[in-house]
Each structure stands twice: as structure tokens, then as C-alpha cells.
């Protein structure tokens, strides 16, 4: 009996598999220390080697989970500068350290000051400078390197960001429209970490789409998962809102929200997170159009959704955002049972992204022209 009890206790104490203990990581804190400078040699005027620097560099194909595995102690130190010697007057520099991180990481110091935005593969930022080598101005004593903590904050880079309440069908849509394999089930909060899918077209064009954990009413007050993952849509070019034609109800204890109310609440939660996100182009996908009575419901709400700005005052204050989204287009789809509707959405998303890219290009050219004209105006008229 005692033997069996010990077996049961051993099983109970056994740690869960690593994949369950550690989930998606989008923020990591590391302590970095630049290398100390080497000592000089006063008798011969020898100068010690400078301590190594520490850089953070963006690399494709990485995750912060891998970065954490590379640095399990969460401490990174650069090499120490070599002391000056009688036969080697100039000491060698300490070895630099490079911390590879995923593309999309923003580096902050411990006081929240931004050190760099690594949004391009190969871009790097200096995070800890090595100490100077010993020389006459330091009385030939090597100086310590910089030592402090940095925060690596990951914001996914994708063309399209999926936004919606739980169980609206975002993961099903991502699977249907791309080659992603997210976890799918018929209950809320199946998605607990961001997923990235790639839309591939016959001409080899690729568009990336990010599926985020569902928002719920009151996310701005940290209800549910709060706004924890909203930062991952900040760098997207297009927001795709996905709603259930039948609306949403988190549980029997919560109010049932209609499809239109769901759209307004999503609008409000995005606004409360960051109002400038409403400046992004947005598309609405009304999902689950294969359910009984869906067509009738759509006919009832179609005009309201197409003229949401005019209809917003008909709803209670708790639902109304201060600023209403204007959708580029609205699509009726069944991500699960109607491939043709998904294909149409897929084609239109590409078309809209092309228009957005062209407008962005024109805006940059106008901005550059304005800067040139401003510089000419500051110099004054030419003297002939």
C-alpha cells in the first residue's frame, strides 16, 4: 500500500511536458553586460583592449521562445578586453556578442526608452557598450562595460490582422484561406496564441494573415485575455473583422449581442486600445452564412452595417464607439462550408492590399515633394 502511494505521488509530482509548460512568448527581459576594458601598462604606455559590445539583431525564422532557450540564465555578457603586455603593447578587443531575435522585435531599456525597432532582417541595434581600455586618461585602468536590462517586445508583422470575438470562425477562416493549421473547436477561446497563415496565389504572390485570440466585451478593462495580443495588429496593413451572423454570447450569464452589436463592440475595443488603428483599411466578413435563417438575418442588417455611422446613435451608449469604422467592403461567407465565398474574399483581399500599397506609395511621394518644396522656400527666391 505504501509502495503504491509512493508511485501515485511520483506521478503527481512529474512535470508536465515542456510544450504545455511554455506557451507563446511575445516579451522577454534579458540582462546584458558589455565587456570590461583591459588594463593598460603605464611603464610602456600600453593601452588595454576595449571590452566587447552587445548587439541585438533581427533574424528570420526565430521566435522569442528559441531566444530564451539560447539564453536560459537570461544574462548575456560580452568578452573582456585584453590587458596590455610588455610584448603586446595594444591589448586585443573583447569579443562582441550578438543576440539574434525575431523580425518585428522592438528593444526597450529598463526605463521603457526605445533603443531600436528591428523590423527588417539583418537590422541590429547596440544595447550594451563595452568599457574603454586602460589608457593615460583612465590611469591605465580598464573601465567596466554598460550593464542593464533590456526588454524584447515582439509585434508580429503581417499583411492582414484578424479581429473578432471568440468562436466567430477566425481560425476556421485562416485554415480555409491559407495553409495554416490552427486549433479549431466549437467553444470560445480555442485560440490562445497568435497564428500566422500564408495566402499563396498562382503567380507566387504571398500575403500573410495573423489570427489573434478573440476579444470580448470589456477587454479594455482586462476582462478575458484583455488587450494582450492587440499589439500584433499594429503593423498590419489591413484589418479583417470576422463576426458571426447570429451574434455572440460568451456564457448564459452574459448578454447576447447581435451581429451589429458585435461589430460596434469590436470597433469600441479597438478604439480604446489605440484609436489610430481605426485609420487602417478595414474589411468585414460576416461568417456562418450556412446556418438556418442566416440569409433573412442578413437582409435585416445589411443596410445598417453598410451605413454604420448613421445607425450608431440607435444603439445604447455602452455599445457606441466615439469613432465609427468605415469598411472598404463587407463579405458574407461560410468559412467552414462554402469554399467559393472564401475564394472570393481571398481575391478581394489581395485587390484591396494592392490599392492600399499604391496609395501609400503616392502619399510618400507627396510627402517627399512637400519636404523638397519646404527646403526651397526656406532658401528664398533665386538671385539672378
Describe the structure.
The chain is an alpha/beta fold. It folds into two domains: 25-154, GTP1/OBG domain (Spo0b-associated Gtp-binding Protein, Chain: A); 160-362, P-loop containing nucleotide triphosphate hydrolases (Rossmann fold, 3-Layer(aba) Sandwich). It contains eight helices and 14 strands. The chain has helices at residues 2-13, 18-21, 64-70, 170-177, 259-273, 294-306, 308-311, 339-379; strands at residues 27-33, 54-59, 75-77, 97-102, 105-109, 114-118, 124-128, 147-154, 160-164, 195-200, 206-211, 238-244, 282-287, 329-332. The strands form three sheets. It has a six-stranded mixed sheet, sandwiched between helices. A five-stranded mixed sheet has the order 3-1-8-5-6, with no helix packed on it. A three-stranded mixed sheet has the order 4-2-7, with no helix packed on it. The radius of gyration is 28 Å and the shape is elongated. Residues 1-22 and 183-192 have low confidence and may be disordered.
